[in-house]
Amino acid sequence: MIIFRSLLIPLKAICMNVLSVAAGLGLLAATCAALGTDVHPLIPLLVFTIVFGLSLDYEVFLVGRIAEHYRATGDHDTAVVEGLRHTARPITLAAAVLATTFAGLLLSHHHDLRQAGFAVAVTIAARCRPPWRTECPLALP
Fold first, then answer.
1. Residue 44: which H helix or E strand, with range?
2. At what angle do helices 111-127 and 43-73 cross, to 10 degrees?
């Protein structure tokens, strides 16, 4: 908030995180209901904590790059385009690696780890789809 001198950027980031975590936990709940099992009570907290930390890290990376281009050019549109162009690939590749890593927990013999791995992998995959990535700069003041 202090770095980017905006209250809207962190509020938007929190809203986007809540939406993506809700999508992942909703899919986990539907899957567990179909399998006849219950979701472990700590899984929502664990998923929210992991995804919140990861997505805010990438949000700062993206918005920092946009701010850098804005300071260099003074043009909002060019700054957003260049910021996205320079960060889209690293963010998407990092998300793919993390989603794959957490999906690896599905091979565990522990039911709790399988639930956490599934929920985090689905949430990361949902969060890094192109529409979610472009909503960040679209919501900038």
1. helix 43-73
2. 20
